[in-house]
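Sequence dictates fold. Next comes a concrete instance:
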Amino acid sequence: MASGTDRRQRNVTVTVRLTADERARLEELSSRAGYAAGAFMRAAAFGEAGPRAQRRPPADHVAIRKLLGELGRVGNNINQIARAVNADQAVNVPELREALSAYLELRDAIFVALGMEPSGDYQGRKQGRA
């Protein structure tokens, strides 16, 4: 039985030299189009990406950068709460719930920025049923 590699129709490689800036631009354009770099280049050259090219949802890079900043803030809050717990200090439960809620909102926003559906787990906790 032939392996997946043996059955591949695309067995010819074309090498293209790019600068680091050109490579970054290629990755940005292909990401916006929702394709891997190779499929994007086939689409640009031939008008179609090919029968097995899988579209990926385009990522909103600006939103992701903002979310990473917010994630750092929430992480810092959670770290301070963990430090208090480890020092046997009383834990502020409303503060802990607020940090968890902020984390869950950020998680869902990251899914949206990546063009994906937010995962269904922890939804009950987010709605205050924890």
User: Anything to note?
Assistant: The first helix runs from residue 4 to 7. The chain has a mean pLDDT of 79. Residues 15-58 form one domain. The chain has six helices and no strands.
